[in-house]
Amino acid sequence: WALMVTGRTPTNIAVIKYWGKRDETLILPINDSISVTLDPDHLCTTTTVSVSPSFDQDRMWLNGKEISLSVGEFQSCLREIRSRATDFEDKKKGIKITKDDWQKLHLHIASYNNFPTAAGLASSAAGLACLVFSLAKLMNVKEDYGQLSAIARQGSGSACRSLYGGFVKWIMGKEGDGSDSIAVQLADENHWDELVIIIAVVSARQKETSSTSGMRDTVETSLLIQHRAPKRIIQMEDAIKNRDFPSFARLACADSNQFHAVCLDTYPPIFYMNDTSHRIISCVEKWNRAEGTPQVAYTFDAGPNAVLVARNRKTAALLLQRLLFHFPPQSDTNLDSYVIGDKTI
Ligand code: DP6
């Protein structure tokens, strides 16, 4: 026999960025962060986890290619979930698995991303969140979402925010064991559904500096990192609560720019954005200034791709027109394509 569970998890985009760890093993951050979870139809990971007495070892495939499960991130998540497995019984199929059986049985895991892996589109967030969620379902884990988020966090920090839809806050926590470093939902996916997200894929290539090593260098060498403003978290929570787009946009853009300034202040300096990214920023800033109030927000993660948030559908259509005019895909502007999240949040 074999038991199987399939889960689907969208990626999330931070509007107040997580950058820097106070504990690298448990993945405990040095600041709170806030993100928006995308609609699962667009950028998501689908993961099938199965268990069978005929499997002789744990194995995993990513986009059809076998990958090693021995890396620390996977091992932490597997260990944490296994330790919380509970008895399972399917009388019809005559399957009974006890808590102790789960420790011995092996797993096969197949995961697919419908977007480029490790290109700064938060693939690790969707991937690890989906893995933890699917395994928890398979092994009959009874923990709530907050506790599951703390497990996903140990796979990749940003993954803890992908367990919820809508707007999510990852509370950095104070405890040494990470028990209070969990994600909570600030507002669900229906709260502010006129927002539309467009992702301009400047480059689908894998990023040169991984978030993990970039963060380590920043914490060790940047002086600017101490000046990241914790006040922004409260202001962003208010902007989301009140659906205040001008404040939301100002805070998201400022935080993205501050994050990239911190990267530049790191030794050796980290450049995630390129010329095309900078031109997109100028284009949005000019438009927002001309309108007198922000219409579009931009944010860039650990890569050159632009995540653009339009205040409504009408603005999104105009934005797309402008982008296509200034940055035609596959031209020398080096823009690969656009991913448009309709009713994204
Ligand atoms: C810039 O979550 O990928 O996207 O915890 O080392 O796996 P690890 O890093 P990761 O870092 C994401 C950084 C970011 C900002 C964010 O998503 O908050």
Automatic annotation (TrEMBL):
<dbReference type="GO" id="GO:0019287">
    <property type="term" value="P:isopentenyl diphosphate biosynthetic process, mevalonate pathway"/>
</dbReference>
<feature type="domain" description="Diphosphomevalonate decarboxylase-like N-terminal">
    <location>
        <begin position="10"/>
        <end position="183"/>
    </location>
</feature>
<keyword id="KW-0753">Steroid metabolism</keyword>
<keyword id="KW-0456">Lyase</keyword>
<keyword id="KW-1207">Sterol metabolism</keyword>
<dbReference type="GO" id="GO:0005524">
    <property type="term" value="F:ATP binding"/>
</dbReference>
<comment type="function">
    <text>Performs the first committed step in the biosynthesis of isoprene-containing compounds such as sterols and terpenoids.</text>
</comment>
<comment type="subunit">
    <text>Homodimer.</text>
</comment>
<keyword id="KW-0576">Peroxisome</keyword>
<dbReference type="GO" id="GO:0004163">
    <property type="term" value="F:diphosphomevalonate decarboxylase activity"/>
</dbReference>
<dbReference type="GO" id="GO:0016126">
    <property type="term" value="P:sterol biosynthetic process"/>
</dbReference>
<keyword id="KW-0443">Lipid metabolism</keyword>
<keyword id="KW-0547">Nucleotide-binding</keyword>
<keyword id="KW-0752">Steroid biosynthesis</keyword>
<keyword id="KW-0414">Isoprene biosynthesis</keyword>
<dbReference type="GO" id="GO:0005777">
    <property type="term" value="C:peroxisome"/>
</dbReference>
<dbReference type="GO" id="GO:0005829">
    <property type="term" value="C:cytosol"/>
</dbReference>
<keyword id="KW-0067">ATP-binding</keyword>
<comment type="similarity">
    <text>Belongs to the diphosphomevalonate decarboxylase family.</text>
</comment>
<feature type="domain" description="Mvd1 C-terminal">
    <location>
        <begin position="197"/>
        <end position="345"/>
    </location>
</feature>
<keyword id="KW-0444">Lipid biosynthesis</keyword>
<protein>
    <recommendedName>
        <fullName>Diphosphomevalonate decarboxylase</fullName>
        <ecNumber>4.1.1.33</ecNumber>
    </recommendedName>
</protein>
<keyword id="KW-0756">Sterol biosynthesis</keyword>
